[in-house]
Amino acid sequence: MSTLATLLAQAEGLSAADLKSAEAASSAGFAYGLAAIGPGIGIGYLVGQAVQAMARQPESAGQVQTTMFLGIAFTEALALIGFVVFILLKFV
Length: 92
Fold this sequence. Notes:
With 92 residues, this protein is mainly alpha-helical. It has a domain of 52 residues: F1F0 ATP synthase subunit C (F1FO ATP Synthase). The chain is built from 3 helices and no strands. It is elongated, with a radius of gyration of 20 Å.
């Protein structure tokens, strides 16, 4: 049985506030899942291109690696923003 079906089966006996809380939790989890997809793809692409650049020009590997880590940090910030939105949707 899927999670949504389980929530719907249990929702029959819930009050309106409890149902709203359950819907907020499921939609917040879905939103965070979507928010994590973009940074995951971005970091994968970034690291792949950095490895390719280091393989083509090994003498500039230090500079490429530094830039790669900065890019990873900025891209990961998007996932953290998604997590904050998840927390806000769940508890507000």
